[in-house]
Structure formats: C-alpha cells, structure tokens
Design a protein that fits this description.
The structure is a single chain. By secondary structure, this protein is of the alpha/beta class. 47% of the residues lie in helices and 11% in strands.
C-alpha cells in the first residue's frame, strides 16, 4: 500500500492502457480532466528491445505526465526484463499485460492467453520483481469461477506483484459479446490479497466509479472506453465534444503522434454526432482526412453546426434519429457509447439467419449477378448494394487529396511508395522491399533469416568436421 500511496499518490481515477489511444497527448488531456494515473499503450517487449525508434516514441513523456506506468506484453522473462530495464528510469512502475483478449494477443501468445500458464507467469513476475528498482504490477481478467480467480491473484502476489488490476470480464467477453463486467470477482480478490487492487470494467460515468468503489472495496477504478468517449468523465461533466477535441488537437501538435490516433480519437469524441444520418458527409471526410489542418476544420465545422443548439439559440429537435444506442443527452455532448447486450446480439443474428433461410430455400436459392451479368456471391452483392447507397462525395472535397495509387484509400503519410498500408504490404512482399513509414520490413527480415540460416549451416558443418 505504501507504493500506491507514497509513489503513485493514492490515485482513484485511472486511465487504462489502450493500444493506439493512450498516447502522450491523450494522457495529458485526460489528466487535465481529472485522471490521477495513466498507463502507456501496451508495448511489445521484443520490439521495444530491438527498435530504438519504437522505444523513443513509446517513452515520450513530460513532467505533466506523472505518475506514469509503462505496460509491456510478452511471454519471455528475459526479454520482458530487458525491456523493463530500458524503461524503468522513465516511469513509476512496470505493468505486465495479462488481460488483452484480442486475436493479436492469441497469435503472439501473450495477454490473457497466458493466464493458464502459471509457472511461466511466476517466473516472469519474480524475474522482474527481483531485478528492477521499481515495482511490478499486473493487469488480469477473471476466470469463470471466483475460487480460481482468487487463487490466480494470490499466485501473482506471491511472485512479487505489487498492485493488481482486475477486469471483471473473462477473455471470451469481447466485441459484440462483451456484456457486463462482474464486480463480485474484484471484491473477492480485494479481500484475499494484501496489495492494492484496481477495478476495471463497466465505468461509463462518475456514478459508476463511485458505485464500483463502494461495491468492490478497490482502491481505484480504471476506465478505457468511458474515457475515450468522454475524457471529462472524472469531473462529472458532459462537455460539448468540440471542447476536448480542440484541446486535444493543440496537444497533438505539441506532442506529435500518428494521424491515425488523432482520427480515432475524433471518431470516438464525435461518435453520436457522426451517427446522425445528415452528418454522413462529415463522417466520410473525417475518415479521409490526413492532415492536422483538415482535422481542425472538421471539428470547427461541427462546432459551428451544433453550438447554436448548445447555447439555446436554436431549438434542438429531439426526434432526430441517430444510429447510436441508448442516446439520452443531445448528440453533441460527450457521453457513453452503450453496446447492445450479447443476448440481443445473438438473437438478432439468429433472426437474420432464419430470415435468410426462409427467403432462400434450398430449392429456390437465389442467384446473383454483377452489372456485367457475371455470377457473384450473396456477400459480394450486399457489398455492391452498400456502395451504391453511399452518398456522392461533396464537390468541395479537393480532388487532389492524397490517395493510394492502387486503390481509393488514403495513403500513409510516411509511405515511401505512396500507398495505403494494405497495398504497401502487398508490394513489399512481392518486390522484396522495406517501407520505414509503415514499418513493413520484409526485405530486412528475409535477409536476417538467410543470414541466420547460413550461420546455422556453417555451425553444423564445423561441428560435423570437429
């Protein structure tokens, strides 16, 4: 508890580590709106050790960005230790990501897909705990039973973990099947261990935070999606989205980050406004924008559109439809995005499947053709119909805006071949090239593979001779 109180300053309002979202500019914005502790995005320990540019960007910080916890993912104790030793002078603690449930974590064998390998996790946590000058913390997801979750937490505590963040969802609760986090698991862990416990999940407003602290006994509460849609969550406010958006753009120019991060944050902040069908044109332009000036112009346009309503100069028609779920406040205000329940999602999928089977009986299966009369699949036909329903692009969009030379997607701002990432990756694989802008290093990795293969053959020959 001394670490949580004396080093971290007893934080209660905590912003989660979020890939491509909790970069320095966003962390500073969150702190200005009441966040007391922030994490870096999840960093890949192996890349962090090998790539100086990746390391420099990942450790970008400033005096206002304190206290800060650096989070790593990985499955090798030595690699995680090497990365942590490089980072320990820039943060208050090192966090091990044991909670990521995404497919990339499954492929890389890290995050929540290590939660069944307790001997390995004991080695990782103890190795870092015994060799770092700063504490080691862990972020986990719950198991199906409280008993196993508690046993898991106590194992990590015994290995040297000094603070534990418990997400009240299992690793299978993600995407449309996310559902609600179960705080009873957090409470059980809090009562079983002597280290600080942070609760993660179900935090969409300040009332959720206070209820969570009361029900779980956790020392603090961590939020991710709630923060992205309303960075002022910790202040009991729902500001008009253009206020944090303009402040964030100023911070992004002071502390540069990839434009994809900026675009993603603006889509989250203006999620409900962009769900209004009349704003479909603005949504398309935001998706294609690739300069800070374009982002700023779009935010100012949305401000000019909705500020008269916000100030009461123009009456807002509350019957205006949006594609957002459970919208209570006017759409220009920062507020939570509420997913549909897993039960409703499964029900809708089943209804669509039955409807499809009813319309397309095995004896009367429909056949689809494109404009040239060629047979195509039902999936392809649906895609063509969606494209045909898209509104025409506004005439005031400059026709010369940078787009990929092979498709209509915006090109990467740093791509050497003036392509989008998908096309660039395909070209690099075919032509054996590298693209530093997209961090696609096909040629370099192939050369390394050949070098190590030749070294291995050389060693085999020398060992055979000897």
């Amino acid at each position: 508890m001394e670490f949580w109180r004396d080093v971290l300053g007893a934080p209660r309002n905590i912003v989660a580590p979020m890939v491509d979202a909790s970069e320095l500019a966003w962390r500073i914005l969150s702190r200005r709106y009441g966040a007391q502790l922030c994490y870096t995005p999840m960093l890949h320990s192996a890349i962090f050790c090998k790539d100086p540019k990746y390391r420099k960007e990942a450790l970008a910080s400033c005096e206002e960005d304190k206290p800060l916890i650096v989070q790593f993912c990985g499955n090798d104790p030595k690699t995680l230790l090497e990365a942590s030793l490089l980072a320990q002078d820039y943060c208050s603690a090192i966090d091990i990501n044991l909670g990521c449930p995404q497919a990339i974590a499954k492929r890389g064998h890290y995050g929540a897909f290590l939660q069944d390998e307790w001997p390995l996790l004991q080695e990782i946590v103890s190795t870092l705990s015994n060799n770092l000058r700063i504490p080691v913390t862990c972020k986990i997801r719950r198991f199906e039973t409280i008993e196993k979750t508690v046993k898991y937490a106590k194992m990590l505590e015994a290995a040297g973990c000094k603070m534990l963040t418990v997400h009240g969802r299992t690793r299978d609760q993600k995407g449309p099947l996310t559902g609600l986090a179960d705080w009873s698991y957090v409470k059980a862990v809090r009562e079983a261990v002597s280290i600080p416990v942070i609760s993660n999940g179900n935090i969409q407003c300040m009332q959720d935070l206070e209820r969570c602290l009361e029900e779980t006994g956790a020392v603090g509460v961590m939020t991710a999606e709630g923060n992205l849609h309303n960075p002022a969550l910790f202040t009991y406010q729902n500001p008009p989205a253009w206020e944090p958006a303009l402040e964030y753009l100023d911070l992004s120019e002071k502390y540069p980050c990839p434009l994809s991060y900026v675009r993603g944050h603006l889509f989250k902040l203006f999620h409900h406004v962009l769900s209004v069908p009349e704003n479909n044109d603005i949504r398309i332009r935001l998706g294609a924008a690739n300069t800070m000036e374009q982002f700023r112009l779009i935010v100012k346009e949305l401000k000019a559109l909705y500020e008269p309503h916000h100030n009461g100069l123009v009456r807002w028609d509350q019957t205006v439809e949006t594609d957002s779920q459970n919208l209570i406040l006017p759409p220009w205000l920062c507020q939570p995005y509420i997913r549909d329940t897993p039960e409703n999602y499964v029900k809708k999928v089943e209804e669509r499947r039955k409807d499809s089977e009813g319309k397309m009986g095995s004896e009367n299966k429909r056949h689809y053709e494109d404009a040239d009369g060629n047979p195509i699949s039902r999936k392809k036909m649906k895609k063509l119909r969606r494209i045909s329903r898209r509104p025409e692009k506004p005439s005031h969009i400059p026709s010369e805006r940078p787009i990929c030379e092979k498709c209509v997607n915006p090109l990467g701002s740093k791509c050497e071949y003036k392509l989008c990432k998908k096309c660039c990756k395909e070209r690099c694989y075919v032509d054996n090239l590298n693209c530093e802008g997209h961090r696609i290093l096909v040629k370099k990795r192939r050369e390394m593979a050949k070098f190590y293969a030749s070294q291995e053959n050389k060693n085999k020959i020398e060992n055979g001779i000897s």
